[in-house]
Specification:
The protein has 347 residues and is α/β, with parallel strands linked by helices. It folds into two domains: 260 residues, Aldolase class I (TIM Barrel, Alpha-Beta Barrel), CATH 3.20.20; 67 residues, Type Iii Antifreeze Protein Isoform Hplc 12, CATH 3.90.1210. The protein has twelve helices and twelve strands. Strands 5-4-3-10-9-8-7-6 form an eight-stranded parallel sheet. A two-stranded antiparallel sheet has the order 1-2. Strand 7, helix 8 and strand 8 form a beta-alpha-beta unit. Helix 7 runs parallel beside helix 8. The radius of gyration is 30 Å and the shape is elongated. The N and C termini lie far apart (60 Å).
Length: 347
């Protein structure tokens, strides 16, 4: 368990929900601000972007991923695609100030050393590390030295690689780490999600855990919270039809709001796990449970037998489980058919 600004992250607390704007601003700071506004309306805890210098992130000859080619609709190099989506440091300062003014937490994922240093210099409260950098031990060590909470996505990784990443962070005396289960396809098919792996990670490393979702719709992140996710991250966009690699695998603002509300509803329904009757059930308990009643007219002084008993609603009298305390006893007055038999009318 740890804290990011005023949010406590961990078991026993509400899921920390991150609206992943990513690069869905398409390189336009004004669209980024629109995303901030929509995130606030949805009720998420934070909005997250991606900060990078294209020249530091990718070579000029790196090919696009298959999903990027499919979602964009044409082939280019990763470099050319990302360069169009890059925002300046000045733009991020403007976005961060806008988030402060609007009172929503600003986060961003750094993809290179320079971007990490920049985000640290402007006082970002926690660092998100992408699945692609889980094996980038030099970057992990660099960010760990900031001594800020780290949220680490684990798409494409196995337990051994996650362990190596955590050890690199822990060795620099940074223990405030959460690991998000993730399937790095955009969109990810349901059969590829393997949601139970989230708790495998949690149990294996005793860490705060969560889920970074790339499936279509809102079902899987809601399910993740139901089985214990401490953090949820989900891509969203102003318009799924916008040009760019991630829009098609993102929620629109209405869907994002629906997801947040559904998660909060699920959390409310989970309760504390103690099995007992709820105060709201008292009226139903009286109407639906049964009491011991006379199955026929019983005269005063008669010895009660099982044949004299029946069990009927309402449950305002003696519970049927106490029938043994009645059988074989003598009545101290006449008892009418269907009258509740209580301990004070037997000897």
């Amino acid at each position: 368990m740890f804290k990011i600004e005023n949010k406590i992250i961990g078991d026993g607390n509400r899921a920390f929900i991150i609206a992943e704007a990513g690069v869905n601003h398409n390189g336009d700071v004004n669209i980024a601000k629109q995303l901030v506004d929509k995130a606030i309306i949805s009720g998420v805890d934070a909005i997250k972007f991606q900060t990078f210098k294209t020249e530091k992130l990718v070579t000029g000859y790196a090919d696009m991923a298959a999903y990027q080619k499919s979602n964009i609709g044409h082939t280019s190099s990763q470099f050319n695609m990302l360069k169009k989506l890059e925002l300046s440091q000045e733009s991020f300062i403007e976005i961060q100030e806008y988030c402060k003014y609007k009172e929503i937490m600003f986060l961003s994922t750094p993809f290179d050393f320079e971007s990490a240093d920049f985000l640290e210099s402007i006082g970002m409260s926690a660092f998100k590390i992408s699945s692609g950098d889980l094996t980038n031990i030099p970057l992990l060590e660099h960010i760990a030295k900031f001594n800020k909470p780290i949220i680490l996505s684990s798409g494409m990784a196995n337990l051994s690689e996650i362990e190596e990443a955590l050890n690199a962070i822990y060795c620099l005396e940074n223990s405030e780490v959460a690991v998000l289960h993730c399937t790095s396809n955009y969109p990810a098919k349901l059969q590829s999600v393997n949601l139970n792996a989230m708790n495998t990670i949690k149990n294996a490393f005793k860490v705060v855990s969560g889920y970074s979702d790339h499936t279509k719709g809102i079902t899987v992140p809601i399910a993740a919270v139901a089985i214990g996710a401490n953090i949820i991250e989900k891509h969203f966009t102003i318009d799924k039809n916008m040009q760019g690699p991630d829009h098609k695998a993102s929620l629109n603002p209405t869907e994002l709001k629906d997801m947040v509300q559904a998660i909060r509803d699920v959390e409310m329904s989970l309760g504390n796990g103690i099995k007992r009757y709820n105060p709201s059930e008292v009226d139903t308990m009286k109407a639906a449970r049964k009491s011991v009643v006379a199955s026929r007219y019983i005269k005063k002084g008669q010895i009660i037998t099982l044949m004299d008993l029946d069990y009927k609603r309402p449950g305002t009298g003696l519970s049927p489980k106490f029938y043994v305390d009645i059988v074989g006893k003598k009545t101290n007055r006449d008892i009418k058919i269907d009258e509740q038999i209580t301990l004070n009318i037997i000897e």
